[in-house]
Amino acid sequence: MADQPSTVLITDHDAAHRYEAHVDGTLAAYVTYELGDGAITFVHTKTEPLFEGHGVASRLVEVALDDARDRGLSVIAVCPFVASYIDHHPAYADLVRLT
């Protein structure tokens, strides 16, 4: 597999409460979430071993955060991966709901 997968499709599978990244038709990663009170809580990110280290999860989180912004939702990052992503990409810091 190349460093950048050829075709990455990211969708919000709302019935399962998760954003999913498919690479060439195969589920590569997902981030689970809970919605409520004007916020989206990112709970857990999972990357399938074959796709680790190729930036799929980072792209997935980027799309999920962009969608949260578009929907006017604040973000609660319970998931350490999402929290770290936000720490390393301060353009998303304004989304974080302060408790």
Task: Outline the structure in words.
- With 99 residues, the protein is an alpha+beta fold.
- 24% of the residues lie in helices and 36% in strands.
- It has two helices and five strands, in the order ββββαβα.
- It has helices at 56-70, 80-88, and strands at 8-13, 18-23, 26-36, 39-47, 74-77.
- Strands 1-2-3-4-5 form a five-stranded mixed β-sheet.
- The mean pLDDT is 93.
Describe the protein's topology.
Blueprint (H helix, E strand, L loop, with lengths): L7 E6 L4 E6 L2 E11 L2 E9 L8 H15 L3 E4 L2 H9 L11
Parallel strand pairs: 4-5
Antiparallel strand pairs: 1-2, 2-3, 3-4
Describe what is shown at a glance.
The chain is an alpha+beta fold. Helix content is about 25%, strand content about 35%. The protein has helices spanning about 55-70, 80-90; strands spanning about 10-15, 20-25, 25-35, 40-45, 75.
List keywords for this structure.
99 residues, five-stranded mixed beta sheet, alpha+beta
Number of H/I helices? 2
Radius of gyration (CA) equals 13 Å
> What string gives the helices and strands in order?
EEEEHEH
Helix/strand-derived class?
A: alpha+beta
Helix fraction bin: 10-25%
Low-confidence stretches: none
Largest sheet entry: 5 strands, mixed
What number is the mean pLDDT?
93
Q: How would you sum up the global shape?
A: globular
Strand content: 35-45%
| Biggest sheet: strand arrangement | 1-2-3-4-5
The count of DSSP E runs of length 2 or more, i.e. the number of strands, is 5
Distance between the termini: 41 Å
